[in-house]
Amino acid sequence: MKPAANPFHPDLQRAARLIPNITATRPLLAVMRFLMRFQSTPRAPEDVAVEDVQVPGSAGAPPVRVRTYRPRRTVQGPTPALLWIHGGGYIMGRPEQDDVLCVEFARELGIFVASVDYRLAPEHPFPAPLEDCYAALRWLFAQAGALSVLPERIAIGGASAGGGLTAALAQLAHDRKEVRPTFQLLVYPMLDDRTTTRTDIDGTSHRAWNQGSNVFGWRAYLGREPGGAEVPAHAVPSRREDLSGLPPAWLGVGTCDLFHDEDLAYARRLEAAGVPCDVAVVPGAFHGFDVITRSAGVARDFRGLYTAALRRALFPSSGVA
């Protein structure tokens, strides 16, 4: 019998063989969080100022730590900004894990970047993580003048669960009508708890985040079994029926990503609702490939795509592709 073709992109095949198939559980979560705190962080760059600030939380909630990145080079006048939301399945992660990426955004685009240290499930289920992100976004708008930020050019973005929170934040901001981000950057976002109930998924090509972890993450975030008939408003972005009026979006995902189908379905629904949504599908790419295999050509190209999308959204008159 002829063996099945390798599903992974040539740049990712070696990494795909080495990544262990680990499913998140409550005991393992404590270990994973502990190890993440000892991840090496890059040396503070000379050309980008990095600072941690405490911003007011939502009513009755504690302050939210926001990690900011600002290019040191002289910029004439206020700049656009990006509110970035880290990934981690709603159950782990911290802004420091994306230091390299946020520094690159600030350096390459000449923008102010704020990364949110939101509370994590299961200790803090929905709506706490989303409310923390909303508090950070509201702070960014309220302090736009002091931060030398253009309030009409504030984008939101995130990867994985951070992408899911980005999509939910766009919906929440639309409904509350206090602040309006100009763009949403959705990097392989975790959007739909109903994926946990699918029995037709072949998970052999999934890496970094499998169906078992997906069930655990959504259960922790929702505080109930995922995939049920109803969920609270804004908890699951893909459950929202009316997507009209949301900010334009860019969405990228790999064909070997557990979120591939739910992501493309959401992108199609955005377009159908009149929301422009550019889509990038990377053949043979697994979840988080641009971080796990950062130096691979396909990873660099992918980052280049979403950086260019952010540039177009924040500098619409520049004419830069």
UniProtKB/TrEMBL annotation:
InterPro entries: AB_hydrolase_3, AB_hydrolase_fold, GDXG_lipolytic_enzyme. The keyword Amino-acid biosynthesis does not apply. One of its GO terms (molecular function) is hydrolase activity. Signal peptide: none annotated. Keywords: Hydrolase. The keyword Hydrolase applies. This is Alpha/beta hydrolase. It comes from Archangium minus.
